Amino acid sequence: MGKLYQFGSVIVRVYANDHLPPHFHVLTPDDEALVEIATFRILAGSLPGRVEREALAWATENRATIAAEWNRTNARFPIA
User: 9-32, pLDDT tens digit by residue?
Assistant: First the structure.
């Protein structure tokens, strides 16, 4: 499982052989959200405001890294 970033107890991760649309997971000890890579829209779950802001700020600066990890671990659904 591709752990991309961690701040405190929050982990940003891409799972291998995952489903469409291309997305990443933000996990805390108590919450989880699936975030679409193209739009950074939360597809499922929820996060506390501070965690959501920090995770999405990091994702905005690292979109290419997230997309590359998605493509590496989900080759059947590549991001063009």
Answer: 999 999 999 999 999 999 999 999
* pTM of the shown model: 0.94
Domain boundaries, the chain: 2-73
Strand order in the sheet with 32-36: 2-7, 10-14, 23-27, 32-36, 42-45
Answer yes or no: are the C-beta atoms of 23 and 43 closer than 8 Å: yes
DSSP state of 12: E
Nearest to 26 by CA among 49, 52, 62, 50: 52
- Of the candidates 7, 4, 31, the one whose C-alpha atom is nearest the C-alpha of residue 15 is 4
